[in-house]
Design brief:
Length: 781
């Protein structure tokens, strides 16, 4: 059919979304030429602009192809505008132009199979080259210094292309066509090793020196994509213990890097879903089960994840890592390059200075790192990948704001003090930052301020509102108020657990004016609307307000914040609440609660009676700590957040058979439904006295707690006429609990929302704060 003469023969097409650094312009070039179209394509800010002329059918075919795009792209919008085109007869890639910027850069991408094959092929030009990449892989966000995304605005700007690389860059048939980080041994970054031997080594000799040091039990600081790692043999107990001692990391799990899927299979037993996640271009750390039948001579060190049944592993995601692991021939620990509690090192001089007491050698290179990016951590929970920590490979990919939020002013949300991350809303998107660390740790607040300035400059975001956690003593609250005062901006305090639920709602696209949901917010602690410490809550939420309709019955928090680090304190509080002091003392006398033996129980009980430094707390996280203490898997003092709960989950997974759900009571207190754990404690003590295996008691605890909260959520949903339950809070990183909750709720006919792209814990809190502040702005709150 001939074209309608009334239709324009040319048009301007603008493509939005993740279309920078993914080979989008080369994709458009090839598609347009195949369709016989004339025109140009260029970067315009963080969008791609196409000016095209030709038959309507061909232009329609181009637009249809744009929605798929190249493999790494995520197209959000395609808008078409009538226009004239008076250019030449062909189709070309035009120079980039400035434009508005929001979040159109993709995260760093793991090395693709083609580049991996190339570095291992002796006849290839890039054989053994540690910085090989193409349009489908390599560094992106970690090297970007500005928009639009061109080599001149990356940390590759100082490496001029050699003639051979320039030919590849300019050749549309080459997979390096307009690949901005393109490099080769003649013109790209180079390796350098600094170690105990006299004089530094460079290039292949640097790689050989690092591998030799690792094989002899040394610790090497390795410069990666988003910062330095501390690497050592994962199969050597002595070296792993040495790394822990030097770094001051006594028990927190250490991540392990495998060369490839074959090495992974030799040491671990990942599920099919976990193997798929490990192979994702984001290359996250994924907790997987290890193999008990690995050869004793080459088995993984027992010191990698003390007390846990899962090991965090990742596959080599850069050519440097792949080449190093190929030389070593064994899995390597890849722990964040920092002293415990400090931000990861990204600068070469700082690495030599700050890691001098930890590393024996440094494998470095001369490509600068634009920003610090810790490895992302993801797990398969309830059949889907879930983000536990958002970092390299995930940040800064945006989340689309749900329908109805477009008119809201831009928001800066400050997140929490633990697992700190901020969120910027801008042009219909929520940009959740990468993981910063805990604000109480040295240097993290400075790192957060620097990252916030970086994001705001890079993405051109100017907030009108600053959202903060309502707790006035949080560092994030104080920092948010200072930033608001500096900019003359409004501050919007947001309740902690409301933000948890709202983050889950936003990720699942619930509209701004949609109906409320029942929210289960289970975590360690957060300030509640009544001024007490919450952490086991059943809420009815929309984006503007939250109302508590149920909770875990509160107990004292003896010693305040100290009780969050010493699980035996919570065991005392729970046993006293369930059995009375005499009953708790009897359990200690019978040897059923050895964690309390020899402890200053009278002193803590006096604190509780007097209400001195023993506030009431409804925390699910502290209940997990108490049970871990009863079953003797909790340390006297935890060395990292969640240690006791993670050990309890690992214990429960080892049950010899499915356990019956432990009994929990339900009562009403001042009109509020309360889950009473007293029956569970009595049953657990009876089981322990009867010799029931601790793993079965732990499994019964998980099943019983899930049943109690699922039943209360169903009750709330019926009473409120709602059909959706949002699961949120750090406890949802516990796969046993989350899956049991989701299964029971679905069986009751309820729609279940569980976070996936944003962490369920405090790492995703800023997203919830942002959408709550935005929703309130919409109504002139």
């Amino acid at each position: 059919m001939p074209d309608d003469p009334s239709e324009p023969a040319a048009e301007r097409i603008v493509v939005g979304g993740l279309v920078q650094a993914v080979g989008f312009r080369p994709f458009v070039w090839r598609t347009a030429r195949r369709l016989g179209l004339r025109g140009t394509v260029r970067n315009l800010g963080d969008t791609v602009e196409i000016r095209v002329a030709g038959p309507r059918a061909a232009r329609d075919a181009l637009v249809a192809a744009l929605w798929s795009g190249p493999p790494r792209a995520r197209v959000g919008t395609v808008t078409r505008h009538p226009g004239a085109y008076d250019g030449g007869p062909g189709f070309d890639i035009a120079p980039s132009a400035a434009g508005s910027v929001s979040a159109g850069i993709v995260a760093d991408l793991a090395t693709c199979p083609a580049c991996l094959d190339e570095i291992h092929t002796p006849t290839a030009r890039r054989h053994g080259y540690a910085f090989t990449n193409c349009v489908d892989c390599g560094p992106r966000f970690s090297i970007v210094s500005g928009f639009p995304y061109d080599r001149a605005r990356t940390t590759m700007a100082g490496f001029a292309l050699c003639p051979a690389c320039r030919t590849e860059y300019d050749d549309p048939a080459d997979r390096r066509f307009h690949a901005q980080p393109i490099a080769c041994p003649d013109c790209g970054p180079r390796l350098r090793f600094v170690g105990p031997e006299a004089g530094p080594a460079e290039g292949d000799a640097a790689l050989a020196a690092a591998a030799s040091l690792l094989l002899t039990g040394g610790i090497v600081a390795v410069k990666g994509i988003g910062g330095y790692h501390l690497a050592c043999l994962a199969t050597c107990d002595t070296t792993v213990a040495l790394l822990r001692a030097r770094k001051g990391r006594p028990a927190k799990p250490l991540a392990v890097m495998m060369r490839d899927a074959a090495m992974l299979a030799a040491f671990c037993r990942p599920t099919a879903a976990e193997r798929q996640l490990l192979a994702d271009p984001s290359a996250p750390v994924v907790p997987v089960a290890t193999r008990a039948d690995a050869p004793l001579s080459a088995g993984l060190s027992a010191g990698l994840a003390p007390g846990l049944d899962r090991l965090g592993v990742m596959l080599a995601y850069t050519p440097l890592h792949a080449l190093l692991l190929a030389r070593v021939g064994a899995p390597l620990v890849m722990s964040s390059g920092n002293a415990s509690g400090c931000p990861q090192v990204i600068d070469d001089a700082a690495a030599l200075r700050d890691l001098a007491g930890i590393a024996d050698g440094w494998l470095m290179h001369d490509r600068p790192i634009a920003r610090r990016l810790d490895d992302s951590v993801m797990a398969v929970v309830d059949g889907q990948p879930r983000t536990l920590r958002r970092g390299r490979g995930l940040a800064p990919e945006p989340l689309a704001l749900p329908p109805g939020f477009a008119p809201a002013p831009p928001v800066l949300a400050m997140g929490a003090d633990l697992k700190s991350a901020f969120c910027l809303t801008h042009t219909g998107q929520a940009l959740l930052s990468h993981h910063m660390g805990n604000l109480d740790d040295a240097g993290v607040e400075d790192a957060l301020r620097a990252a916030l300035a970086d994001y705001r400059a890079l993405f051109a975001q100017a907030p009108a509102v600053v959202a903060v956690d309502a707790h006035p003593e949080y560092r994030s609250h104080a920092l948010g108020r200072r930033l608001a005062a500096e900019g003359g901006l409004r501050v919007e305090p947001v309740w902690h657990h409301h933000a948890h639920v709202a983050a889950c709602m936003a990720e699942h696209g619930l509209p701004a004016d949609g109906p409320a949901v029942v929210g289960l917010a289970l975590d360690g602690s957060g300030l509640g609307q009544d001024g007490t410490i919450w952490g086991g809550e059943v809420l009815v939420c929309d984006y503007r307000a939250a109302r508590r309709v149920g909770r875990l019955a509160p107990v004292a928090l003896p010693g305040g914040d100290v009780a969050a680090r010493e699980p035996w304190r919570m065991l005392l509080a729970h046993l006293d609440a369930a059995l009375g002091p005499d009953g708790a003392d009897a359990a200690v006398a019978r040897g059923l609660a050895p964690a309390l033996a020899g402890r200053p129980l009278p002193v803590l009980r006096a604190m509780i009676r007097a209400g001195v430094n023993a506030p009431p707390c409804s925390s699910a996280g502290r209940l997990f700590d108490a049970m871990a203490a009863l079953l003797e898997v909790a340390p006297a003092r935890m060395s990292y957040e969640g240690e006791a709960a993670m050990r309890l989950e690992a214990l429960a997974r080892g049950a010899d058979r499915a356990a019956d759900a432990a009994p929990f009571g339900l009562r009403t207190n001042s009109g509020l439904a309360e889950i009473d754990p007293a029956p569970m404690w009595r049953a657990a003590l009876r089981d322990k006295a009867d010799g029931v295996p601790p793993a079965r008691i732990a499994a019964a605890f998980h099943a019983g707690l899930a049943r109690a909260f699922a039943d209360l959520a169903q009750r709330a949903a019926r009473a409120e006429g709602l059909d959706t339950v949002a699961l949120s809070g750090g406890a949802m990183h516990n796969a046993l609990l989350a899956e049991a909750l989701a299964g029971r709720l679905r069986a009751a006919g309820l729609r279940v929302l569980l976070p996936a792209r944003a962490p369920a814990g405090d790492g995703g809190l800023a997203l919830g704060q942002a959408v709550i502040a935005a929703a309130r702005s919409l109504e002139g709150h």
